Structure formats: structure tokens, C-alpha cells
Here is the input.
Amino acid sequence: MPWFIKQETIRSSPAALRPQLAAHRAWVEALRQRGVRVCSGYLVDGAGQPGGGGLLLLEADSYAAAEALILEDPMVRSGGVDWTLHQWIGVVGDLELT
Here is the structure.
């Protein structure tokens, strides 16, 4: 099954997004409980400071299925982030997400 990557950048202040971030984490956990392979995290700079946005890795049957899930994400629904979605095709190496 293909993997997809959602990259997001924050449009709102981090403080304003706290409720959506908590809802996002609950949403990811609910997906995991349903058996969806998904991993979410945030980006930091060279000094380890957050603010670069986030990435979500997701296994789905198709781009349309991945996009449908992403549109349910509380961070996306809030309008507080700009986001892109791409299918990822690994070419070299072996990455196992568990």
C-alpha cells in the first residue's frame, strides 16, 4: 500500500492552535486504533526549536483515500495551517515504520 506525506506550515499563532493540536493528536490516535498506519510530528530547526510546521506520514490505498483522511484532520479543518499532500515512492534504502 502506498505511503503519503502531508507537510504543513502554521498560519495561526501556536497558542491559538493548542486546542486543534490536542484534537489532532486524538484524531491520529483514533486512526491508529482503526488500524491505519500513520505517524505525526513537528519540525525543529538546528537549535531544536519548533516552528517549522509538521509532517504526517500515512499509508492509504490511493491519493484520494489519503486526501479524504487529511481533510478530517482538526489542524486542517481549523484553517490554521497550510498543507500539501504527496505520495512518497521510496527508491533507495529501507525504512520500516511501526
About this structure: Strands lie at 3-10, 38-44, 50-59, 81-88. The mean pLDDT is 91.
